[in-house]
């Protein structure tokens, strides 16, 4: 792994930049920031583009996902890449990314990235797990009302020229019970909104969570399914959640109830859901995510749910609001710049979370060493033996899985000190990436 080390630095004379938000601290830069190349795909927020350009980076922006061959060619020469949910950063793709330091997922999920392989290459991955919570919760509330009034079918009939004024099996949602599967950031937001509309809320989560408002926790998933008039799923994609709502679970649900899935496409068995809708056991469903989704807008979407009665199908737009995308853009772009410029891995998905306090603006002799290495005994001792001849102002080290992350602020006298430290650390057999920040 030693042959894959990277060093980014600027001459000591350039160590005079300041953090615009705090003139009492020094703004670290890995090297001439104009040399940092960023590839942004899938039309991420213009706010993210602005943040990265203001950081001095070269930004290559695309509104769509790239085909695999083009992506492999583009990713060879970039230090950061930003994606949403369609781009697949597999081991095959990442193996060509010889300069890549960080990946920003401008969305909640990270299952489109091989996280373990990225970590093994020293590539830190960030996402935005909370910024679109409100947008998804509001979409679910809208879908609950639409399903209760059969508005999807009525709208389609009107567009087809059919007037079909009915009230049978159309309901108010006040007094109805909403069952939430997964009581995280989206689930809790949804809970608050539903209660404000007069609904009763029950929920199930594998973790102990404090209830909000008048909601109550269920002991089992089946309890939620059997009691709720509306069931809404808000869980991550894991082996445990794959097809967690299948034929058996759908049969447990109340006859005439509704299912909503705005979490991950693998959570619900689509064929079983279609059968439950066509048989009349379920009165309706709303689905925003699918096991397989098209890479680009346009015709070609196929699903067993098409033309099922009272079924709302949307193209993975739960977090697709201007507000959510702006907040996601700010959060992920800021995480990228902080990692590249100062080494902080706070809120990383596949790295241990490490950070060091800022260096005072009056300090002109400190350099920051950032190191990624295999998490095996003895490496930290070797690094500290190398730094023993220098004054280490502060340091931090932590590990996650097979990869460890190390940061240290070291007093140096000149460029020769930095070169010596770097050359010695890079000889450690278990090293993955070493960076020097001034």
UniProtKB/TrEMBL annotation:
MF GO annotations: (S)-2-hydroxyglutarate dehydrogenase activity; NAD binding; phosphoglycerate dehydrogenase activity
Domain annotation ACT: ranges: 368-438
Enzyme Commission number, as recorded: 1.1.1.95
Swiss-Prot/TrEMBL catalytic activity: (2R)-3-phosphoglycerate + NAD(+) = 3-phosphooxypyruvate + NADH + H(+)
Enzyme's top EC category: oxidoreductase
One Pfam family it belongs to: 2-Hacid_dh_C
Keyword Oxidoreductase: yes
Pathway per the UniProt entry: Amino-acid biosynthesis; L-serine biosynthesis; L-serine from 3-phospho-D-glycerate: step 1/3
Gene3D superfamilies cross-referenced by the UniProt entry: 3.30.70.260, NAD(P)-binding Rossmann-like Domain
Keywords, in A-Z order: Amino-acid biosynthesis, NAD, Oxidoreductase, Serine biosynthesis
Keyword Cytoplasm annotated: no
Protein origin, superkingdom: Eukaryota
Swiss-Prot/TrEMBL GO biological process terms: L-serine biosynthetic process
Family from the record: Belongs to the D-isomer specific 2-hydroxyacid dehydrogenase family.
The protein's name: phosphoglycerate dehydrogenase
Species name: Coemansia javaensis
